[in-house]
Amino acid sequence: MCIVRPLTVEKRSDSPIIVPQSEYEKHGVEDPRIVKIDDLFYLTYTSYDGINALGTLTTSKDFKFWKNEGIIVPKISYEEFKLLSESEGLIPNKYRRYNEFQISHTGSVPVFLWDKNLIFFPRKINDKFNFIHRIRPEIQIVSIKNMKDLNSDFWQDYFLHFKDNILLSPKYDHESSYIGGGCPPIETEYGWLMIYHGVYDTVNSYVYNACAALLNLENPEKEISRLPLSAFQTRRRMGTEG
Question: With contact defined as beta carbons under 8 Å apart, do 143 and 154 qualify?
């Protein structure tokens, strides 16, 4: 039996926190996640310009005034990605499959790899910011001392060593197509609990599943364990479907 507990909304603003304001988000903003690190709120979301979907950051100290930090994930074409990361022999068919649009699109507007599911860990780890992002089909991780370090030199080195920055790859049948981040990682005494989504193909469409992994507290690049079943499969085995 699944018990759903009601929630009480204490206050609802008359206006949204984030609205499209720039060319790179003129077709919408979506998938927000928020954490508080020290005295600052970090709200991440995906901005969409009609062609490119990229992780974006805005910050606030009081939930009233927000500073748009812009797109903080790399703006990189598939060809640039291929050129940099193939030094590790890392361009199997899976990357090409999930970037067919970026490969085949023609036009005057630059086309970048879609980089979504931008999510910060809710505290600094070893005095560094850590965040995950997703270039399909895997989840990648970034660790930096200062936000200003996210420059072109950083990303060039990042993709030259791209294999080292892959946090999670599809492993089980229910996540065989691709995976992506969910809510911000949750700190527990056993490690960082990471809720993410796993996707697999069917004849009709993609099927999404809720999944969970545990990451090392002081070295989140290290995966401790992962549930071999999706949340739905677990409920069915326990007889608590619904």
Answer: no
Helix axes 78-85, 152-160, angle to 10 degrees: 60
Sort 198 into a burial class: Cβ within 10 Å, 0-12 / 13-18 / 19+.
Answer: buried
* CA–CA distance, 34 with 43 (Å, rounded to integer): 4
Beta-strand relationship, 139-144 and 178-181: unpaired
Query: How confident is the model over 123-161, as pLDDT tens digits?
Result: 999 999 999 999 999 999 999 999 999 999 999 999 999
Contacting residues for 23 by C-beta, under 8 A, at least 6 apart:
49
- Cα→Cα distances 23→17, 33, 76, 112, 146, Å: 18, 22, 18, 15, 26
- List, for the chain, all residue ranges whose pLDDT scores fall below the cut of 50: 1, 241-242
pTM score, whole prediction: 0.89
How many residues does the structure list for the chain? 242
Contacts of 63 (CB under 8 A, 6+ apart): 17, 41
**Structure tokens of 200?**
């697999």
Residue 212 CA to residue 109 CA, distance in Å, equals 37
pLDDT attached to residue 1: 45
Three-state secondary-structure class, residue 214: strand
Residue 173 per-residue DSSP state: G
pLDDT at 82: 87
Q: Cβ distance 196 to 180 under 8 Å?
A: yes
Token digits of residue 185: 């990682």
Strand partners, 160: none
